[in-house]
Amino acid sequence: MGPLHDYRFPGDEAIYHALNGLDWPWLFSLSRLFSNRTFEIGLALLVVVYVFIRHRRLGLATLVLTVLSITVNDRLGAAVLKPGFARQRPCYALAPDKVHQGEPVAHSGSLPSSHASNAFAAALPLSLGAPELGPLIYAIATLVALSRVQLGVHWPSDVGVGAVVGTLVAGALLTLWRAARKRLGDPGPKSESGVE
Fold first, then answer.
1. 20 to 30 A Cα–Cα from 137, which one of 28, 52, 115, 163?
2. What pLDDT does residue 90 have?
3. Residue ranges of the alpha helices (H) in 35-155?
């Protein structure tokens, strides 16, 4: 990755300081939990297991689409978007006394936030596999995104763009999945969820 640049969008710094300025130990602990990859993967697996138990035939499609969405999205962010935007993280752009950094982070591109992007890439197939859990799944994805700002390692626009990119990647893969199944003459299980 080439040199990183410090640029901000309207409202970025104000929202960043409002969230990152909440210097409460319990909030930092909660943010660290929602930023923990093992915790995030564990929650996703719990939803997939739930889908296998509750909706049976949707389980495999939910699992495959979730793994594909996260994998494609993560590679797109790391190999294309972060180097392309070449944006400096706020914890490196701002003076040390202006940041409450809650965890160590690499001096790598900030835009988009991989945590936020992957959380929303997973949220779409998981919420389609278990629509009754949709609001909870999206609430958790939002908490993952906000935790990155609260910990001081991303600008608010990093997580906003990440959420949009993750959703678009998952939506594109879902469309391709449906088209492939239709082409193969397999309509998939009948469901109201949209995962087939």
1. 28
2. 95
3. 37-55, 58-76, 82-85, 90-93, 114-129, 134-150
